[in-house]
């Protein structure tokens, strides 16, 4: 089968098309013909940083985490899937798990769910990593009907899913963005847009919560922006974040009694820990999509498998709106 392989990591690393063996599904695995995959920020980090990231595979490396496709073979001990099922998941491209930038993949069935029936393969491929991340953060933060939820970065990959899921759970949703296109998307997805470049945290906390703060802040920007999240949260509020590799003064979090939930969704893949939870989350997300409450946004540019390098460059350019998808 054809696969896009990285032989050397670094800023100038390139993908090379190679012919490799079609994998044979082992115990608990499905063999899937991949129809589409998507690019996530962690994929670009692995490509550039290599061994500086402890989750990077050894070279030559087959990257790519998300996919959607069709089951073509099933291991003897798998009963929940059959040949012909259309499925999606986040299954590899890190540590010892082969990635999705290929024509086929053999993957752990616990990380996979049946694709939502009302969307295509490209849309389905855009969901798994960001969808699981958004869902996990909101659930761990204890989202409930009627709460006020703020999503930082609501036009981004995780943010645009978190925004829609929060709305599905019955929250009153607000979201920050930094430009007209971003704010237009946020409003179109059903949240109240906040321009963080023109409104201070104090401004929008007073405007939308009467100074009380938001019950949940989902921070997909993270880093130094976590201080803004602490300031925007209500007393005893919850912060969910995907980016906490930083040093911060937690004084505000202490005096407001905040709970901080760090979401690192790669843990089940890296440590073979509760992998079945990812499959269950993807089932739940499929139900939300089939109810019409969630729609993944795809960037206007799509790429072929041979253009994997261009797909990475598109995401890194910062010009993409929505998920960057590769057609196989």
From TrEMBL:
The organism's place on the tree of life at top rank: Bacteria
Keywords assigned by UniProt, alphabetized: Cytoplasm, NADP, RNA-binding
UniProt main location, coarse: cytoplasm
Keyword Transcription: no
Keyword hit for Transmembrane helix: no
Pfam family, any one: ADH_N
Listed InterPro entries: ADH-like_N, ER, GroES-like_sf, NAD(P)-bd_dom_sf, Quin_OxRdtase/zeta-crystal_CS, Zinc-ADH_QOR/CCCR
SUPFAM superfamilies found in the cross-reference section: GroES-like, NAD(P)-binding Rossmann-fold domains
Ranges for domain Enoyl reductase (ER): 10-326
Subcellular location: Cytoplasm
Known partners and oligomeric status: Homotetramer.
Protein name per its UniProtKB record: Zinc-dependent alcohol dehydrogenase family protein
């Amino acid at each position: 089968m054809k696969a896009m392989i990285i032989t050397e990591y670094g800023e100038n690393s390139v993908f090379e098309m190679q012919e490799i063996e079609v994998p044979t599904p082992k115990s608990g695995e499905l063999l899937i013909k991949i129809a589409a995959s998507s690019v996530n920020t962690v994929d670009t980090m692995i490509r550039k940083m290599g061994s500086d990231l402890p989750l990077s595979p050894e070279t030559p490396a087959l990257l790519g985490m998300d996919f959607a496709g069709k089951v073509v073979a099933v291991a003897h001990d798998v009963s929940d899937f059959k040949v012909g099922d259309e499925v999606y998941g986040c299954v590899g491209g890190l540590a010892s798990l082969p990635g999705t930038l290929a024509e086929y993949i053999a993957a752990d069935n616990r990380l996979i769910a049946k694709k939502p029936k009302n969307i295509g393969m490209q849309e389905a491929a855009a969901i798994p990593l960001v969808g699981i991340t958004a869902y996990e953060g909101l659930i761990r933060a204890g989202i409930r009907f009627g709460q006020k939820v703020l999503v930082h970065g609501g036009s981004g990959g995780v943010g645009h899913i978190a925004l829609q899921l929060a709305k599905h759970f019955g929250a009153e949703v607000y979201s920050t963005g930094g430009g007209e296109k971003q704010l237009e998307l946020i409003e179109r997805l059903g949240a109240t847009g906040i321009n963080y470049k023109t409104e201070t945290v104090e401004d929008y906390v007073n405007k939308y919560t009467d100074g009380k703060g938001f019950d949940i802040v989902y921070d997909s920007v993270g880093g130094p922006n976590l201080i803004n999240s602490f300031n925007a949260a209500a007393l005893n509020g919850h912060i969910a974040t995907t980016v906490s590799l930083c040093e911060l003064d937690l004084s505000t979090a202490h005096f407001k009694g905040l709970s901080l939930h760090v979401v690192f969704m790669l843990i089940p893949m890296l440590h073979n820990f509760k992998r079945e939870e990812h499959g269950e989350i993807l089932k739940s997300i499929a139900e939300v999509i089939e109810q019409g409450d969630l729609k993944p946004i795809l960037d206007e540019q799509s790429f072929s498998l041979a253009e994997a390098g261009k797909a990475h460059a598109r995401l890194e350019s910062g010009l993409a709106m929505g998920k960057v998808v590769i057609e196989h």
